[in-house]
Each structure stands twice: as C-alpha cells, then as structure tokens.
Amino acid sequence: MASLDLKVEDASGDILTEKTFHLLRGFLQPDTSLTLDSTAQSILDLLSPYAPHSTEVWVFGETCIELAEQIPYYHPSQLKFAELLEYLGQSAVFGQIDTATSPNKRKYHRYQRLGESLRDALNTTEPENANAYANFHAFAANIHERRIFRTNPTWAIWAQREAHETAGKEQGRYRDGYVLAAAQWILWYGQSLFKQVLFPGEISSRDLQRWKPGPLYCGKAYLSLQRWHFWRDGFKSVASGEKEKVEWVSQECTNVAAKAAEMMDSMERNMTFDASDRLTIFGKGHARHEVGDASRSGFPNFGFLRHFRRHS
User: Fold this and answer.
1) Strand (E) positions, 49-203?
2) Reduced to 3 states, what is the DSSP secondary structure of residue 96?
3) Judging by beta carbons within 10 Å of its beta carbon (0-12, 13-18, 19+), is residue 198 exposed, middle or buried?
4) How far is Cα 281 from Cα 45, in angstroms, rounded to an integer?
5) pLDDT band at 265 (very low <50, low <70, confident <90, very high)
6) Can you give the pTM of this predicted structure?
7) What angle do CA 139, 156, 6 make, to 5 degrees?
8) What φ, ψ does residue 109 adopt, rounded to 5°?
C-alpha cells in the first residue's frame, strides 16, 4: 500500500497541532514502526491534565478530521485511525462530564469535543469534493463502528437521505459525493446499522424529527426494512445506470454503489432467520418449536421480522 501524503494547513502556527500532526502522520503510514500503545502515550503526553476543560482536545479532534479527509476511504489506515481513537478513548482526557445536573445523575460523554467537530465538519465539507467527502464519511462510519459514540443510526440515515431520498436534482461530482458517502455507512457500519433495523430500541420524538425522510421516500421516519430496501434499490439504480445519466456518476461511484447494494442484500439474507433456517441448524428434532421460541431452543427470536415486513 502506497504511503500517505498527509498535510494540515498552518501546522506551524500552533505547537500542539504541529506535534499532533507529526505523530499521526507517522503512525498512519502503512510501513510505520510506531505501535498503537506508543503513539497513544505520545499523544497523551502532549496534553495537559486540564485538557478536557481547554481547547487542546478540540485542536486534537480538528487535526484528526483534517487528516481523515485525506485518507482514501478504502485505505487500511482509515481502520487504523479508528482503532487509535478507540484506544485513546479509555483516557479521561478525551471525555466531558455533564456538571449541569445533580452528582448522581451526571453522565460521562466520551469524545464530546470530537463529536462537536464532526458535526461542524459535516455541515462544511463539500460533496463536490467527492473524495474528501467520502473519506470523511468513512472516518465517521468507522469510529461509530468502534462504539466511540453511543450506538445510533442518525448519521447513517442522514447520508442515505442525501443520496437516495433528496438527490434527484444533483449531478456530477455532487452526485458522486453523496452516493460514495452513503456507501461508506454500508461498507464500514452496515452490519451494525442492520441490527438497528432488526431491533430499533427506544425511539424518541426527537429521533423521528431528525430521521425525517426526504421528498423521494414516501414511508415513515423509522429505520425500517422498507427504508432499507429503498436505499438498496437506490444503490442498484446507480450501479446499473437505470435512473442515472452516464455523465452524472463516475465509474468509481457505480462500482462502490454495486458493492453497497450487494452487501445490503447479503446482510438481510444472512441476518434474518425463519423456520427452515432453524431446521437446518438444530435438526428435525427441533421442528416442533415455533419460530421465536427462544426459551426452549436457545435461538434468538427473529419472528418479529414479519411485523417489519407488514408494517414498515
């Protein structure tokens, strides 16, 4: 794998940015001799004990995002970067404690400053720069997969909404950017996302407001199997050229869209179970058990998927 030519703007203007950049640039190279533990410790040594209450953690996060946008979404260093952040997240330096509530109700927010920087970057990174936009979303998807933030489908839904539910008028590199970005959430976070299709957990009114569909999707705001199929069909349309003018998308975009659609089909096929699956796994002696009878067979209850297919 080729070396990464990473840069940050005005690194010489801030000592912390410059030192952080040099550490990360060295660690993220494919042929580096730097270890995960030594790099993490070197980064922690740069930060003061008061870092959580200063701009230091924010500077670190901004530097990470700037570098992540330069790492190709398919490059192993994207995975390596996420592993480093997960490792660093064990340190209290990268967390914030909510002091606005009573002591027994206070919560620890890991990487709060990084989360804020990611949200700002989401609003400022231009999809016209398709490569950087896709790289950014690959970075966000990978750190969500590492559970650096609480499990939540919001970012993935936003990316799919831009690509498939509101993107009818987009052309050229903008179209590439939206589709490539949406694909990253399938490639690197897809299995976790589909688990949330299977079991959405508790959904608040705020969630439904944030998950509001785009004008091209007529279903409800839920993360449902119906919506999953709509997104998959969107990727298939891009890959086949059925609804896309040739000049609207690049060959790279069609190839990645095909991968995303294939993965979505595969995940649904292999992560859902019916009675015939249980006969295959447990043998005919268990045929008397109903689908979802976890109490006797010890097998997870997936019978509720029928509800999704009827009502989503």
Assistant:
1) 95-97, 108-110
2) strand
3) middle
4) 52
5) very high
6) 0.82
7) 15
8) -110, 105
